[in-house]
DNA sequence: TGGTTAACGATGGGATAACATGGGTAAACG
DNA sequence: CGTTTACCCATGTTATCCCATCGTTAACCA
């Protein structure tokens, strides 16, 4: 499982060290590396191991062969996905177009999301985080996670990040 | 699996380098090359390895021998498909009619789509690419990954194409 | 417990092989 | 006999591999 957030450097050749935890997730597959594609939702990258790609492929092959959505997904995901293999030190080389899409400038933030991960420019990710947080606050009623309830006594005062 | 998008040149002889990743996918078959035919959906080419052809053959042979659709598929795919073998440098020579169908003019864009690939004029593909991305964004809900269940119904090497 | 050392992960740079591409020549085809 | 197709070699560019360095963490020893 891809977990946690890591900030690594992107050198002049576009190389970036994949966090060791992430490498351990994909270790064992026939393809020793990760697969990365530009998100079609924003200026960041999405990635995973080959197993993730095969899950997408299974999903897509269940769709009608001439479904417009199927063709769109095939082109948006498979067409844009780059297989990036690890070098001896656990790095991958990001192609120029991926670096540009995510606006990476010397640094990249790996964000683990369980079955996949995201790659962000640190600055954009911070911004995205604050927006995500306020979105969560605005929608907290729909975010009830578990039957466990806080049972009062918790200071409802805004804890620092007021807006 | 055919992945990623590559832009290669088409010289005066109609030769184009097949991306090395793509060559690796079809490597090992008895026929050392790719099979390409004009799409009946638009001005581009479709292609794959021999394994893909055999899949199509199996699909079509399940249809009624006198089904009009079967005849149409046979003519549109098998009748128009050209086996293009690699030269020593990994290139194929595109016949004139394929170049004209896809309106290739010095450049060709290989688009990997998992079990097959497409060949486009770069300008024409750019347009379809943006449309595919926005369509995918609007319909992403239909791509939800279901929680992986242990009883996977198919072996991991799906589709017969090598990794 | 404090200090030292070995191991792992991350980073930087240079050498080398792979890839894409161009042109030329010989064989095959009509 | 002319045209086309296949094969061969040469070259620039790019990506891949290999080695060295450095910081951090974890293990080990006194």
- Name the largest protein-protein interface in this structure: A-B, 33 and 31 residues
- Number of spatially distinct domains of chain A: 1
CATH architecture of chain A: 3-Layer(aba) Sandwich
Report how far the terminal alpha carbons of chain A are from each other: 34 Å
Please mark out the parts of chain A with pLDDT under 50 across 5 or more consecutive residues, or reply none.
Answer: 153-163
Strand content of chain A: 15-25%
The CATH class of chain A is Alpha Beta
Largest sheet of chain A: 6 strands, antiparallel
Overall geometric form of chain A: globular
Q: Helicity level of chain A, as a percent range?
A: 25-40%
Q: What would you call the structural class of chain A?
A: alpha+beta
Q: How are strands sequenced across the largest beta sheet of chain A?
A: 1-7-8-4-3-5
- Assembly context of the chains: homodimer
Compact description:
Two copies of one chain form a homodimer. Chain A has 163 residues and is an alpha+beta fold. Chain A contains five helices and eight strands.
Task: Describe the protein.
The structure is a homodimer of 163-residue chains. Chain A has one domain (5-138): 3-Layer(aba) Sandwich (Chemotaxis protein chec). Helices cover 33% and strands 21% of the residues of chain A. Chain A has five helices and eight strands, in the order ββαββααββαββα. Chain A has helices at 20-26, 50-61, 68-78, 96-102, 122-138; strands spanning 5-9, 15-17, 33-38, 45-48, 82-85, 91-93, 107-112, 117-120. Residues 153-163 of chain A have low confidence and may be disordered. Chain A binds chain B through residues 30-31, 35, 40-41, 50-51, 53-61, 63, 68-69, 71-83, 115, and chain B through 1-5, 21, 111-115, 128-129, 131-137, 139-140, 142-143, 145, 148, 154, 156, 158-159, 163. Chain A binds a DNA duplex (30 and 30 nucleotides) through loops.
């Amino acid at each position: 499982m891809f977990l946690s957030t890591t900030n690594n450097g992107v050198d002049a050749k576009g190389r970036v060290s994949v966090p060791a935890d992430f490498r351990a997730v994909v270790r064992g597959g026939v393809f020793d590396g990760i697969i990365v594609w530009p998100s079609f939702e924003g200026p960041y990258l999405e990635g995973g191991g080959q197993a993730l790609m095969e899950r997408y492929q299974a999903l897509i092959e269940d769709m009608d062969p001439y479904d417009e959505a199927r063709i769109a997904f095939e082109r948006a995901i498979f067409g844009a996905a780059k297989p990036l293999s690890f070098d001896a030190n656990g790095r991958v080389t990001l192609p120029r177009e991926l670096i540009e899409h995510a606006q990476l400038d010397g640094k990249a933030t790996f964000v683990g999301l369980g079955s996949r991960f995201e790659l962000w420019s640190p600055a954009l990710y911070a911004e995205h985080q604050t927006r995500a947080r306020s979105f969560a606050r605005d929608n907290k009623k729909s975010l009830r996670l578990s039957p466990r309830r806080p049972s009062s006594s918790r200071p409802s005062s805004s804890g620092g990040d007021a807006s």
